[in-house]
Design brief:
Layout lengths: L4 H11 L6 H4 L5 H5 L3 E7 L13 H14 L2 E7 L1 H9 L4 E5 L3 H4 L2 E3 L4 E10 L16 E5 L6 H6 L5 E5 L3 H9 L5 E7 L4 H12 L11 E3 L5 E10 L4 H14 L6
Parallel strand pairs: 1-2, 1-3, 6-7, 6-8
Antiparallel strand pairs: 3-10, 4-10, 5-8, 5-9, 5-10
Length: about 260
């Protein structure tokens, strides 16, 4: 049975009053409160806007992290890093990594939690440059933007820079959409929860990232009809490290699926 653990957990968290975002909570974790609980390093990827400011952690991620802290009786020491560096730090054994998918290479060096949620990997284009996408063969000779170091599923990864070209992007989402608007790529890959519809995603992306053009009300960016892949998202840690905590984490995730009949 398919499920979206993140949204189920978020509903539970809201019900018990954990409604603050991580950005609001982090400053309140003073030294005295941190000393009351074990502290665990947790790496999250950054999203830098054009003002060179780091975007807040998405609310659903913040709620999930708070829920896990409460159930595990610990506090996560959050460190925001570019994705590739955050992945390298986890592989080196410096802490846990939030928001990572499984690949053959990663499975050799990391242990993964139970799935937290599922993401669709969508292709986003300029609306005046849409193309039909049904299989990876439709990407032949096209340029696709992905964040450096990320995976879009085994099939896509295997064809990258073979039948289609990869445009390596940074974690800066706003800058990625500027590149797309200027025609430096045919499409970019954008991850979003499976619970969010393509139409809602397109509306949100245009509201946030479409350039302001005089007398132009039509959407600038369109989301193609079929996702490239559907990927389960996890917390991961270096193999053979923190195994007891990983086991407890998995127990919390699994039990959350059945709370209140969910």
């Amino acid at each position: 049975m398919k499920f979206n653990v993140a949204y189920k957990i978020c509903a539970i968290v809201v019900a018990v009053g954990f409604s603050q975002t991580l950005a609001q909570v982090a400053p309140s974790l003073n030294l005295n409160s941190m000393l009351q609980y074990p502290v665990v390093q947790l790496f999250l990827s950054t999203d830098v806007n054009n003002n060179l400011s780091i975007e807040p952690v998405p609310a659903e991620h913040a709620l999930l992290i708070q829920f896990l802290e409460d159930r595990l009786d610990l506090r996560f020491k959050i460190e925001r890093l570019p994705w590739k560096r955050a992945l390298s730090k986890a592989i080196a054994g410096d802490g846990f990594l939030f928001g990572v998918s499984k690949t053959k290479e990663r499975l050799q060096v990391l242990d993964f939690s139970e799935p937290l949620f599922e993401d669709h990997a969508w292709l986003v284009t300029r609306c005046d440059c849409q193309f039909s996408f049904k299989t990876l063969a439709d990407l032949k000779n096209k340029t696709i933007g992905i964040v450096r170091g990320t995976s879009v599923g085994e099939a896509f990864d295997a064809e990258a820079n073979k039948s289609f070209r990869i445009e390596d992007d940074t974690d800066a989402t706003e800058a990625r959409f500027i590149k797309l608007d200027k025609g430096r790529m045919d499409a970019l890959v954008f991850y979003k929860r499976t619970a969010i519809s393509r139409e809602v995603l397109a509306s949100d992306l245009n509201q946030r990232y479409a350039p302001k053009r005089e007398n132009k009300k039509e959407p600038v960016f369109c989301v193609l009809e079929k996702p490239v892949a559907t990927i389960s998202i996890h917390i991961a840690v270096k193999k053979a490290v923190h195994q007891q905590l990983l086991q407890r984490l998995n127990e919390v995730i699994v039990s959350a699926r059945f709370v209140s009949g969910l």
